[in-house]
Every structure is written in structure tokens, then in C-alpha cells.
Amino acid sequence: MSIGKLTHYTFDLVLISIILAGIHRNTGLQFDVSHFSSVDVRRYFGKYLAFGEACYDRVVSLLKFSGYFRQSNLIYDFAQRASDRLKEETGRSLDEFKRENKVD
User: Fold this and answer.
1) What is the pTM of this model?
2) For residue 63, what are the contacts with CB-CB under 8 A and spacing of at least 6?
3) Does the N-terminal or the C-terminal CB of the chain have fewer CB atoms within 10 Å?
4) Does residue 2 share a domain with residue 51?
């Protein structure tokens, strides 16, 4: 096996572990290692998944500080778009609507 193939397979394994870590972080779904009969395989696969979690953390921190990405709040963004649409369609802002109808 050449060094190029070994590097390629290693990179693929790291990417798969990062994908599994992302699935775990975003959905809560975790790979069930109890299906493996060997304790050694379970332990090594657990270390592999932990390595993916560490790589995922490192990638996220690099992206945060790169300046090319920004974090958004989905709920706030949705409320802002709804407020903008209300103003566009009715000509009144949400605050004006609340004052007129005395809504808290």
C-alpha cells in the first residue's frame, strides 16, 4: 500500500468520524457500540468517536475565528423576517400594532 493511499484512507476515516460527531451534536443520535461483541473493538471504536468529537470541536473553533462565518439565531432571524413582512404588508411595525391594541 502506497503512502498516498494510506493518507487518503486516513483522511476519509477522520472525515467520517467528524460527520458522526456532527450528527451526535446536532441530533443527539449516537452510534451504538454495544453491537460489537469484542470489548477491544468497542473500546477502540469509542476512542475513534471521541477523536471525531475533538476534531469537530477544533474545526468549529477554527471556523468561528476565521471571520468568514457568523453565528445566527434562527428564532430571532425568523421573528425579524416576520416583523419586516408585517410592516411591508400593513405599513405598521409590530410596536405600533402593540400600542394600538395595548398588547404586552
Assistant:
1) 0.66
2) 69
3) C
4) yes
